[in-house]
Amino acid sequence: MEVRGTMGEQVLGADVGGTYTDFLVVDRENTGIRIAKVLTTPGNQAQGFLDGVTELGLKSSAVRTIVHGTTIATNAILERKGSRCGLITTRGFRDTLELRRRTRPHVFGLHGSFEPIIPRDLRLEIDERIDAEGNVLVPLDEEGVPSLVAQLRGLGVEGIVIHFIHAYANPTHERRCRDLVHETWPEIGVTLGSEIMPEVREFERGSTAAINGYVQPIISRYLDSLTGELLKRGFEQELLIMQGNGGMMDAPLAKSHAVHTVMSGPAAGALAAGRTGIQSGFPNLIACDMGGTSFDVSLVIGGEPAVTREKELDYSVPVHVPMIDVHTIGAGGGSIARINEAGILQVGPESAGADPGAIAYGRGGCEPTVTDANLVLGRFNSETITGITGATKLETVRAAMVDKIGKCLGLDPVETGAAILTVANNAMAGAIRFISVEKGHDPRDFALFAFGGAGPLHATALARELGIPTVLVPRFPGITSALGCVVADVRHDFGQSVGRSLREIAGSDADAILLNQVKCGHELIARENVAVEEIEVSHEADLLYAGQSHVIRIPIESPGFDPIAVLETFVERYRERFEAELPEMRPVLMALRTAIIGRRPRLDLAHLAPKAGERLEDAATSVRRAYFDGTWHETPVFVRERLPLGIQLKGPAIFEQMDATTVVEPDDTLVVDEVGNLIITVSDKTQARKGKQS
Question: What is the pLDDT of residues 437-449, one digit of tens each?
Fold first, then answer.
């Protein structure tokens, strides 16, 4: 734990990751901060949260707000460890989740497998039918609902999803079915597809509703357990939960809308990246979060993370709720290196996690990981790994790497470690290309924002591979997602399908939909009772040409929705994207969307600035041999928080702090900015070598 300054009324941000649980406590009245990093407890994540509260020594009377980011929902889906959930749907549509879209997991192969979130024996049908205009064609068979509930109850379900065809146009059947379910089984959690995603596309709406029902019991149990334990310790403050859209909501709402917690941890990190970049003069960032289990990449433009409403969390498992566009691969410090069946070195996606962790942790791990490779190459000191006591000696790690990897490839320990990092870095560079190049952005136009406990170890190598000129390492890389929780605003997103020709839409009809969404947003924020300084409202419209399937989203004004102005903007955006105009085509307004943002008091990130030293010598601790580009270098090691602000130096260098280690490679240069962030200018070693040869 690190403590600085006196502490008054405090805000606690906490992010539970796959390996570590991170904490940041900020006093908004002065410059007091506390940070802590404890090992995640996979069997009961609430215990790791409470361990951190204990280490921080927090007093309940001093804490004003607790904001929590979590990976519980995300991991439950990816690992298929959610609850046993039942589905009641329109007769004839039992297999919508299984039929899905005509896509393949491997483009050039016919192999692959898919397992629906809800198995077929738990998907039941009932007579009812509503058409796309909202007209009732077949009334709901109300007498049949109790028997379906009894059947699902006998099958041991923990939650029920109700997903009727075209319920977005008329939700009365879904709502009546929910009432009948609760008459028979009052305590069961029920998810309505029309509430989670009131939009067209039956498969996507059904999948999103199924995910909510799948993770809802798990999230509910976790939050009940955590709030109960916090109450025992005297914490009566409202517990706020991060959403994947970068906003937050109160715990009761999170229990009923659990799908909105998917990717909340990475979203918090991207949000903090945007705030840090603005303050440091880098509004356009590629944010890279490398933790112990995963590598998360997101794009930040103008200080705002890109938001998507069409995320596929796993193969054929779309999640169509607004969330920050984060691309994730299994590449973290704990990613396991192995020789695959083809005799090729592979790193990840399997991870050693927090337990047993890397070999270097000395907790029983026996499989080489990226962390072990960095240790063998001298990138960090095993005695300084946060939360680890009794770390394994270097020679033991070297021997294990040769035994598991090196002897199969004819490599010594150092060559093995270098090979592991090369493979891992290539995978991470591919993830960055996916979020940038494949979406029309040149990585060279951005700075790379490196965070997570392992991100700053690999940042300059990744930037060099992609031609990114600058790396920004925040003051607390390993606590960045917790910082995102502290700076997050309250946010709720609403959408309503329209599906009508734009030329047929009356401005007053569109305004009525948007105003109703604004009303719902204000009511939610009032119910949550979170202190906000102001409430901002923004509107968007989804449009396409009739016969097409992918929409273009444009900002709109309301009240005063003007179909002519909207059409002009749509035509302009379509021309920019596809270099084409289609005046003979019929524009269709597919959906109207509203974002309600309750702005919380702004945190000045200067509060995070260290009590810097006056001389570089004050920060120097030792010189360690580190391996770069096939050569050992005598590399100075510094305590980061003692670095003088404004100091400039040239690599190689290693900077150690409680939550992360930063590596600056040879020929790269570094400047410490006024709030303690590290700004690294990445050298072009290829050009340097050519110059030396000439």
Answer: 988 899 999 999 9
